[in-house]
Amino acid sequence: MITDYFERKVLRFPPNTNWVVQKAKIDFESEIYKKIQEQAEQKSQFTMSASQAGISRSVNKKYMSQLQGCLAEEYCSIFLTETIEEADLSTSWKVLRYDNVRTDGFRSAVDEYDIKIEHTENLCEFIVESRSSINKNRTLLKGILDFQIILRYISSAKHSEKTCDFHIRPLFQFTSKTNRSYSELKFEEHLLNGELDLFLVAGYYIENRKDKVYEKSLGQGGSVYEVIDIIDSYDMDAFQDLLINVLKSASSNVVL
Predict the structure, then answer these.
(1) Cβ proximity of 90 and 225 under 8 Å
(2) Would you say 179 and 196 are in contact if contact means Cβ atoms under 8 Å apart?
(3) pLDDT surpasses 70 at 129
């Protein structure tokens, strides 16, 4: 996939396995990034002070957390849009990122979603979830081996969550092996200084590989997560092929 927004990279797992990721090309002077900054600022004003672990967060920490999430979501949305266009499916399917189309001023979480892939002539749709992490003190390859795709979770602040159809796993990777100076409160500074890169490393489809899903606490207090190991999901090439096949199949089954 030749694109202005991503660079395809092939990682090699020993002894002889390839894993394809997509590295985001982020232009910090672009309207896209300025939009993300504005959305993160607005969202942070209405975000709960308690984290998933029930720990209180400052306004600045909430902004940094929202910036991380919004940036990852936006590039997941761009990747999906480019995939659909490349497969000549854009006349039948469109990608909507909720924060780009919402009209509530970021005040309400009712009927909220990350990303939606919607059929243009019918009510058929697929919900896509993006949950990012910062990969510290390890290589990107090691992060892919160590991390999971987070599916659903239940916590003291969030008692239930809808099941999504697709999941994409973004990882923010340090460009240097030395990242001891990392601070959650300086996420944007690290980003602008070129110390962090954003990679889309894997995807998951709810109808596939259910036997690989398990529960894990992830060290977040009383939160319980349904997860699948990244390595048990799909690399970005395989996920792209899977997505196209699912949309094509859904298109043929749509009754107009």
Answers:
(1) no
(2) no
(3) yes
